[in-house]
Specification:
about 150 residues; alpha+beta; three-stranded mixed β-sheet; 4 helices
């Protein structure tokens, strides 16, 4: 039973211009009993985004996982159209400040794409940091939601 594949990066040989190749840490939620899923996912996230990690993770699953993805997609995609049709003042109230495509409403540089980026578990992610650790605004900005 392979729950997570480790990663390793291969540096380019001298004179090559291609970036290093990395195996991405992967975890299959279907292979985990519910009682162990949180711990295994935490371990995979640490391997992916911890010191020396590649900064990317692959989370997969079978039918149960795919059904949840479909449900979330069906719930959220209609909201994207509603978000884009909000008055400019409403969008400005939830717009990112000083970042792009990190947290809250963001309008693409080309003006054609926009998105609402948010922390999925809490509206105040900075509260999850250890006491005394400052909340770097780029990643720990509180979620802002439209009133309309």
């Amino acid at each position: 039973l392979l729950l997570m594949r480790g990663y390793s990066c291969t540096a380019p040989e001298s004179g090559q211009t291609q970036p290093p190749r990395c195996d991405v840490p992967c975890i299959s939620l279907d292979d985990l009993p519910p009682s162990k899923a949180a711990k295994a996912l935490e371990s995979a996230l640490d391997a992916s985004f911890g010191a020396g990690g590649p900064g990317i993770i692959c989370i997969s699953g079978g039918e149960r996982f795919q059904e949840e993805v479909r449900r979330i997609r069906a719930d959220l995609l209609p909201l994207a159209w509603q978000l884009e049709r909000l008055p400019d003042a409403a969008k400005a109230a939830i717009q990112e400040r000083g970042t792009l495509n990190v947290n809250n409403y963001s309008r693409g540089i080309d003006g054609n794409r926009s998105g609402l980026y948010f922390h999925p578990a809490t509206d105040t992610p900075g509260d999850c940091l250890p006491r005394g650790v400052p909340a770097e605004a780029t990643f720990y900005t509180p979620n802002l939601w439209p009133d309309q």
